[in-house]
Amino acid sequence: MIQTDSTYWYGVTAAVYIVTCWVFSVVRGVHNCGTPKERRAYIWPDRKMQVMIYLCGTVLLPYVLNPQNEAAWILMKSYFPGTYYFYCGALIFCFFGTVKQWKVWKKANFIAAIITFLAMAPLVANAWWPAGLLSEQFLKVWNIVVTVVSICMIGYSGVAMWQVFQWIKKARELNYSNPDDFPTEYAHRMWLSPLILTPFLWPAFITNSQTVMAYMCIPLSIFNIALLLNVMPVWRRAAILTDIDEDEEAESFEDDELAEERSNRIAAEIEQFVNTEAAYLDSHLKLEQVVERCNFSRRYVSKVFIERFGGFSDYVNGLRLNYFERYKQQHPNSTDESAAEASGFASYKSYLKAKERLPQK
After folding, report:
1. What pLDDT sits at residue 109?
2. Helix (H, G, I), strand (E, B) or coil at 45
3. Cβ atoms of 86 and 119 closer than 8 Å
4. Crossing angle of helices 235-252/298-309, nearest 10°?
5. Of 62, 150, 218, 284, which sits most exposed with the smallest number of CB within 10 A?
6. Within 13 Å, how many C-alpha atoms sit on residue 54's CB side?
7. Rounded to whole angstroms, how far apart are CA atoms 90 and 105?
8. What is the pLDDT of residues 177-194, one digit of tens each?
């Protein structure tokens, strides 16, 4: 039975939530950066999707206008567990997947969208139709449908979280040369969002309480604004892309002999620092340290690593593998673990991973 006390408070809290959705959609829709058009998709790959997703909150208007309406209440309490896990998974895949194999997940995202739409469409139609369309028996059955779909979308968003975690881990292990190769900092802030939101999605649906829903709307509204503020400072990534564009433009007008000379100098510095001075024995060696030593931009050093040495991680670990063999010959009584650590590996497990990935020389 729907509660009838404090209906004004129920409508106001729901209205606050919807208004924050509208604010998010408008700001994300009109706010753009001044970088070249072809690069905008990389900076904001989820821009259009975020606008559409946040506009979906408009379907809750019947509850704002009449919280005592049973059909509006059923839609309101079902909306959050029925849609939010899909929203989170889709946005996570769309943003990070644009950088890393978004096409692989497009089909799964499309299927999840259809399932979510089919689950919510009857409830939306029922709430917006003045006299309602669905019988009480149908709504009881559909309550189960929404629960099942929500659980499926939990799995979907869980896969998105797991995939982004793997991308974060890979970015950390390989020490990517470009700051925007993978938006690791942003991923760290966003990849757990489905888990963080869970305590605010289910309580009203489970308890069938409008009071609980009113309290849920407040943190969800705050989350909307917090997310907006988090994605607003586009100038950070815009500045990175501008720097890269300027480097590419400068290089396009650069003499081939000068470019070759620069590459030779960087390669010599890399060999001297990483190999001759045995910097590879430092298990915490970072690409930034090599960049500082070479006194060239990160982009140039990374390019030389790829063209001359097969990449930073492979080159360093290749040297460590060779050192490991020499160390074992010189210290036959040493354990594999101690030999791996002496060779610059964090552990023997790291040595085995490198040995499996890299060809023996």
Report:
1. 86
2. coil
3. no
4. 60
5. 284
6. 27
7. 9
8. 333 446 666 777 777 888
